[in-house]
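Weekly puzzle thread! Below is a chain. First person to post its structure in token form gets bragging rights.
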Amino acid sequence: MANAEVHAGSILVAKPALDVDPSFRRTVVFLFNHSSEGASGVDLTHGSPVDLIPEFFNAVDPAHALPEGQRRFYWGGPQPLPKPMVLMVTDSSEAPADARPVGNSGFSVVALVKDGTDITGGTFSGGQPKNIVPFIGYGGWGGGQIESEIQREFWAVAPVKLDELLAVPPEQRWEVAAKAAGIAPAPANS
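Winning reply:
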């Protein structure tokens, strides 16, 4: 499959060439920022092994809450964030005022904690968001770096929608994105 254009909202899937690096093996990245100056994204495949900050998830409207066992932070990447970040499905009626849309993906990024208070304490203008995926950390690339890594066959742009990936368990997201990108898994002993 030919490489698609990379932009904010792209889904990147690690190719088998990255299997040698445990940080990126079978990783799927959602790019929330992309420009000539660089790119930033979050890993959608490596969640914390236990539920974290239940008070955050308990504050979410039960109609939109993630099921028990999926209420966890994700290790977004090796770059530290000053505070956790939330990725969410956004409709114009549900987005917090400080949410930043990601291209035309239908998703926004926003800080989980703002001035020491939880964003679920009333900053949503029209109800709770449908998907909440909180991250600690992110991946960052310098200007042109992600394009270079795609040319070197480390990553592919997967023609899959983020909401489709979020609908499957994290341990199955690489297979879904890889299949969409036409990537076959590396042999077991490679």
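Puzzle host: Confirmed. Bonus trivia for everyone else. The first strand starts at residue 11 and ends at 14.
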